[in-house]
Amino acid sequence: MSQTYSILSKDLKQKFKDIVGNDSFFDQKEIRWTYAFGGTVFEKDWIPDLILLPKNRDQITKVLQLANQKKIPITPRGSGTSLSGGAMTPYGGIVLDVSRLNKILDIDIENNIVKVEPGVICDDLNEELKKYGYFFPPDPGSSSVATIGGMVANNAGGIQAFKYGVTKQYVMYLEIALANGKILNLGTDVLKSVAAYNIKDLFIGSEGTLGVITKIGLRIRPLPTQRKLGLFIFDEVKDLENAVRNIRKEGIIPNLLEFMDRVILKAVREYLGGEFYDFPDGYVLLAEMDGNIQDHVEDEFTQIYDNIIQQNPKFYRIAKNDKERERLIQARKANLPALSRIKPTTCVEDCTISLTHFADVIKKIEQIPEEIGATNLEVAIICHMEGNLHPTFLFNENNPKDVEDFEKALDYLYRKIIIPIGGSITGEHGIGKIKTPYLELSHGEQITEKMHQIKQLFDPNMILNPGVGKGDTRKLDEADKSRQLKNQKEKVLELACMRCGFCIASCPSRKHYNIEAYSPRGRLSILNGLVYGDLKPNQLITDILHTCTLCGLCLEKCPSGVGTYKIFEQAREIIHKNE
Ligand SMILES: Cc1cc2nc3c(=O)[nH]c(=O)nc-3n(C[C@H](O)[C@H](O)[C@H](O)COP(=O)(O)OP(=O)(O)OC[C@H]3O[C@@H](n4cnc5c(N)ncnc54)[C@H](O)[C@@H]3O)c2cc1C
Fold this sequence. Notes:
Blueprint: H1 10-20, E1 25-26, H2 29-34, E2 50-52, H3 57-70, E3 74-77, E4 94-97, E5 104-108, E6 113-116, H4 122-130, E7 134-135, H5 148-154, H6 161-164, E8 171-177, E9 183-187, H7 199-203, E10 212-219, E11 221-222, E12 226-234, H8 237-249, E13 256-260, H9 262-272, E14 283-291, H10 294-309, E15 315-318, H11 322-333, H12 335-340, E16 345-348, E17 351-352, H13 358-366, H14 368-371, E18 378-384, E19 388-395, H15 400-418, H16 436-443, H17 445-458, H18 508-513, H19 520-531, H20 539-546, H21 553-557, H22 564-577
Parallel strand pairs: 2-4, 3-4
Antiparallel strand pairs: 1-2, 5-6, 6-10, 7-11, 8-9, 8-10, 12-14, 12-15, 13-14, 13-18, 16-19, 17-19, 18-19
The structure holds flavin-adenine dinucleotide.
């Protein structure tokens, strides 16, 4: 199956400009360039042809109508934190950045529902809900920057999924702008209804391939007031698995049950120091019980504790108060910062297995570097204990041998370990542009074909987020051949920047301009282009670099500790010297 797209002519661009207005239309290479970067190491220079930042639903539907009529690819985008290249554009076309639709429209406490625009940031919503004693439970590691639209499109989870589930459990209704610009309202705001096929759920986790989410109704829950947390360290991963199995058998449901392997514990010890230095080597289980009645929480935590202690952990620490809890939970929150200091590249993978395979799978993943003869590749393993593993590969993406080994490791992980035991190739990060090769192997030809038929039903011209394997059976190397797909891998500045985007939400100039190019991550992408000759210095770049206020908030938020504002200051000095 193939699909050809039209070229965005000058006239056509003008028509898009007429729809969104001057201030929401960007066709300069420097701005488009920044949208070719995201939280994966895979992106080639898939530079979109046009960036549009609509301000309302009406503009979105008009853009879609025109794009569909003229067969121009449209890739919806929130904050660009996808770890699977979800908002990357192998076929070029338009990036529809919805981050300016960021209003919380309604908070209805009596009915436990909130209504939001897709660009609302997860933490911002929870800050607002806290005032009412409520929360929206899914909390991805990227909650400080991920948009609700992006979370719905990816069915995002987080560290409390064991008890609270994932985004899908909270979506009551969706307003969708279809590829042809028509609006579809799916779901209801009543709790029970079997009056229609459940089409709403088809859109949750559809990764922007079936429609653009323009409004979301979410169920919310009362905030728990009591918590009790323990950290346990085991010598043997099998003992840890047994403890979790027993907790499950007894029907106890901790809100947090998280696993970290030896590599992570070592990295965290070195990164956090202090009391963590005394922690022995081993596999970590973090377990927490929450609720609203103190006695219940204490009782249930005791049941968890008893089950774990029966499996002889070599060390444990129970938080006696909130301060101690905050300290212990740091061991989990510091995973990425700690790992990103080991090697220049930290690549977080995502897959799910059932608990009965847990210890066996951990051992197999630990052995990957040896199995494939990769001397410079390290693997660390994080797991949400509902079975969602994040094997994290550490290497140097500027070394071609490392990159080759990393790709072999991924192939080994999915083909040899996860798929044969019936696991899923992604639990929460999505297929994006990177997991298509494993789709058919994972689901079989029939299901892959059915997904394609569904895609064609909603998007016959294949304009929506082309390249995402769900529904798009084309191989990515069939993407517009006239586009020169240069390999970006060796072209990243020698920084530990993971391009996670955590810096963008707090940046004052990003907040003001509300566009990727004016964020720390965007400016770094521009410097990258300058250093390697893909971009040439000009007034726009000088202006973008000068919008950095040098406030340093980006450094505070950066998991890898990259002092981007200092880099921009130096870049400005160099530019002035050369003037
Ligand atoms: C350090 C780090 C930690 C992370 N931790 C987690 C985690 O714990 N759990 C988890 O689930 N994920 C995690 N992620 C992945 C990512 O943050 C989530 O998938 C998040 O929900 C993406 O939100 P976003 O706004 O950045 O979306 P984007 O990256 O911009 O887009 C993601 C996908 O959604 C589509 N999309 C975006 N907005 C819309 C819309 N309005 N309509 C239709 N489609 C749309 C895009 O086309 C794309 O396919 C993590 C990422 C990083 C970098």
